[in-house]
Amino acid sequence: MRLVSAVIALLVLLLVSSTAFIVNEGQVAILLQFGRIVDTGFKPGLHFKLPLIQQVQRFDRRILTLDSAPERYLTSEKKDVNVDFFVKWRISDPSSFYTAVAGDETRAQQRLGPIVKDGLRTAINSRTLQEVVSSARYDLTQALVQAANRDAKGLGIEIVDVRIKRIDLPEESSVLRSVYERMRSERKQVADSLRAEGAEAAERIRAEADRQAQVIRAEASRDAAKTRGEGDAKAAEIYASSYGRDPEFYGFYRSLEAYRDSLTTQNGVLVLDPKSEFLRYLQESK
């Protein structure tokens, strides 16, 4: 009896599991019967189906990302640019999505990539390089979203946004070389201007230093002359005082100074009368 109850419970469990299915938040589902879509639009929650003959296919209804590799495009000026972009998309029609790509997200992205690239190529071809890089960037992506949605409508996909990550010039591009040359020329002009300003400042500093040195030397010469004058005046005062006290000693002292200044020259010749007044103190010392 217990075995029969267990078998019945197992059969009921298998029946319930094969007839009930759950759709989670962030999912959409379609109901298939022998490979044909019989129902769509299931909301999150518990639902039922016929066992064995009906199958459930669930898809992610959240926003998905297609990250594309950089592609080369031509502007209206026939200049090459490398554009790196990504696409935000989601499933808008589960039936069309299943019919177009069998519910495979990888296949959907493989179909979506060329659509966006063709639209981006058309948009860039009609704009100049400056418009692509600067002001037209937002307008370019908005127009691209609208055009790509029209082309991807049959896939059951809605393109939410297309964003350009980077716009680069190719390494071998003549535009890149001209940009580098212009940047180099501008930097050289700035460097030359800075060097000229530095040379001017150096000359100004040297001129100011020379002026200050001349002022310092002039002030030093003035102070030295003043000091020598004061010393000479003081010496003259001392000599005068000494002369007033002992004229004979003063005369003797001055004569000794005259002897020292006149007779110490090695190669000089001095011719004097032996009875000259100049030699008086030498004669008296004999």
Characterise the protein shown here.
The protein has three domains: 2-60, no CATH class; 64-170, Tetrahydropterin Synthase, Chain A, CATH 3.30.479.30; 251-286, no CATH class. Strands 6, 7, 8 and 9 form a four-stranded antiparallel beta sheet that branches. It has a three-stranded antiparallel beta sheet with strand order 3-2-5, with no helix packed on it. It starts with a helix and ends with a helix. The protein is of the alpha+beta class. The chain has eight helices and nine strands.
What is the domain tally?
3
Largest sheet: 4 strands, antiparallel
CATH architecture of the largest domain: 2-Layer Sandwich
Helix content: 55-70%
Please report the distance between the alpha carbons of the first and last residues: 170 Å
- Count of separate DSSP helical elements: 8
Q: Mind telling me the CATH superfamily name of the largest domain?
A: Band 7 domain
What is the gyration radius calculated from CA atoms? 55 Å
Instruction: Determine and state the CATH class of the largest domain.
Output: Alpha Beta
Average pLDDT: 80
Shape: rod-shaped
Estimated share of beta-strand residues: 15-25%
| Number of DSSP E strands | 9
Could you name the CATH topology of the largest domain? Tetrahydropterin Synthase, Chain A
Low-confidence stretches: none
